[in-house]
Design goal:
With about 325 residues, the protein is mostly helical. It contains 17 helices and no strands.
Length: about 325
């Protein structure tokens, strides 16, 4: 890491630290959302020119490093634990999110990058998925500023009389942010919270095939346009390192405390990167152009939540 980036990283950290703390007190909102908001609030405030390169570096590269670090809290055996039935639910909800994003996004006149990010964020895991897909498709910072907080899930679950496993499955597949999944699951019951957490972590692994899919689309587009392309440049190497981190954690080579610490560093790094992205976001422009993406996000969320319930009902999990 170049020394010229340090001023920008430290500047972004001024907003990331309070955002991270706020996320601990309000997990259903989450640190990344607070980071984006704080960054946007101070985006127009004059700052030293020497911080600019570091802020851009934080919003791009540190975002990728954060995804790699998250792998150290992933255990590949969780895929087996949640069972074949829950994987069916994940596949259907993933398809529902991207189909809704594609169809409705096109009707709204949104570009490819925005629909891809909204679909990925809703289908997989909110900020982490957006963080992973954004560099693959070359998305703009403004496109990254998308997040949905879920407050009503426990109330809705009790209203529908869902079982602990049923609610855990629903929360784990339909709520975007991991901290929100944990908060909603344990608000329902301890068993629902434990199951929802496992489902959510398994859902996070979908980052890998989704990023590979979008990298192939980018490569295909480059070929068709006749533009030169580099496989090394297009292939999301940080996703490969994320998988390697998952494997390392699954083997148990690292002490649990070390793996947990690396995972926590990854979560803070996402808040740091989101703060930097907020600092580079034009708030008036976001307000002007942000209505349709937010509406698309709501449509995708409804599609995912509804699909999860339908598939669970068909499989007899409710």
């Amino acid at each position: 890491m170049k020394r010229e980036y340090m001023d920008g990283i430290l500047y972004a950290m001024l907003f990331a630290v309070p955002a991270y703390v706020l996320g601990l007190y309000f997990p259903i909102v989450g640190g990344p959302v607070f980071g984006i908001l704080l960054g946007m609030l101070f985006a127009k405030k004059r700052r030293p020119e020497k911080t600019e390169s570091g802020i851009r570096f934080t919003g791009k590269k540190i975002l990728q490093y954060a995804i790699i670090l998250l792998g150290f809290e992933m255990n590949l055996f969780h895929v087996v634990e949640v069972g074949e039935q829950s994987l069916y639910v994940m596949v259907f909800t993933l398809a529902a999110a991207f189909l809704a994003a594609l169809v409705v996004g096109r009707l709204m006149g949104l570009d490819r990058d925005m629909t891809a990010l909204v679909g990925a964020g809703t289908a997989i895991c909110g900020g982490s998925a957006i963080a992973a897909v954004a560099p693959v498709i070359g998305a703009k910072d403004r496109d990254v500023v998308i997040s949905i907080a879920v407050f009503l899930f426990p109330f809705l679950g009790h209203t529908m009389g869902m079982s602990d496993q049923g609610f855990g499955m629903w929360a784990g597949t339909a709520i975007n942010d991991t901290s929100s999944v944990v908060a909603a699951g344990y608000a329902y019951s301890h068993d629902a919270g434990a199951y929802a957490t496992i489902v959510k972590l398994t859902r996070t692994l979908m980052i890998v095939p989704v990023c590979l899919f979008f990298s192939l689309l980018v490569m295909k587009g480059a070929k068709e346009s006749g533009a030169g392309f580099s496989l090394k440049r297009i292939f999301p190497m940080f996703v490969l390192y994320f998988v390697l981190a998952c494997i390392v954690n699954t083997t148990g080579i690292l002490p649990a405390e070390v793996s947990h610490g690396l995972g926590m560093l990854g979560k803070f790094s996402i808040v740091l990167a989101m703060s930097a992205i907020g600092l580079n976001t034009d708030l008036p422009s976001l307000i002007k152009h942000g209505t349709r993406p937010l509406l698309l996000g709501m449509v995708c969320w409804i599609a995912v939540a509804g699909t999860s319930l339908i598939v669970q009902h068909a499989l007899g999990l409710l």
